[in-house]
Amino acid sequence: MIRLRPFKKGDAKKILSWFDDERTMVMWCSGIFQYPLTEEQLISHLQKAEEREDQWMMAGVDEQGTVMGHLCMWMDFEKNHVHLGLIAVDNARRGQGLGRQMLEKVLTCAFDVLEADYVTLGVFDCNPQAYACYRKVGFVEDHVEAHAAEYCGESWSRIHMVKKRAD
Q1: What are the structural domains, with CATH classification, of the chain?
Q2: Which of 58, 65, 68, 122 is CA-nearest to residue 95?
Q3: Which pLDDT does position 1 carry in this prediction?
Q4: How far is CA 87 from CA 58, 69, 122, 145, 152, in A?
């Protein structure tokens, strides 16, 4: 069972080990952070999120309270929707369905607590595992942003996905 809780400063050190190469980190953060990822960058991002009323950094924790996932939520109050980003699962624990469970929890929060009409996210086309995870929890493609990012000569398209509130 996965639980969601607010991300804490002490969680930053744990996440550092999840990105052992630049390409993976860039796929995750799309330029928000510089490689190599540091505790200071994560804590600075957390402090900025805490100053805003529309952004939350969350940690996914397992039954023992160990951090195994991370994500950010942004609420657009005018359009009544939530955007998810910076979604990651501890690379040592990938393939166990934890990302799916974490997303199911955050969707419950978005729809039942925040009462959003829909939830969006973006995933690069070079990340088929994340794409498959998002499809499993009900996200569908909205549109594709061709050549949204470049990394070491690769051109990545961003697939924008949406999940609407069930009627």
Answers
A1: 3-117 (3.40.630.30)
A2: 68
A3: 87
A4: 10, 7, 10, 19, 22
CA pair distance 146, 149, nearest whole angstrom: 9
Q: What is the pLDDT of residue 167?
A: 65
Question: Alpha carbon 116 to chain centroid distance?
Answer: 17
Cβ pair 157, 148 in contact under 8 A: yes
Residues of the chain with pLDDT below 70 are 167
Biggest CA-to-CA distance, the chain: 44
Q: Using H for helix, E for strand and C for coil, what is the string for the chain? A: CCEEEECCHHHHHHHHCCCCCHHHHHHHHCCCCCCCCCHHHHHHHHHHHHCCCCEEEEEEECCCCCEEEEEEEEEECCCCEEEEEEEEECHHHCCCCHHHHHHHHHHHHHHHHCCCCEEEEEEECCCHHHHHHHHHCCCEEEEEEEEEEEECCEEEEEEEEEEECCC
- The span from the first CA to the last CA of the chain, in angstroms, equals 26
Q: What pLDDT does residue 26 have?
A: 96
Q: Report the C-alpha gap between 58 and 63 in whole angstroms.
A: 16
Query: In angstroms, rounded to a whole number, what is the distance separating the alpha carbons of residues 32 and 52?
Result: 17
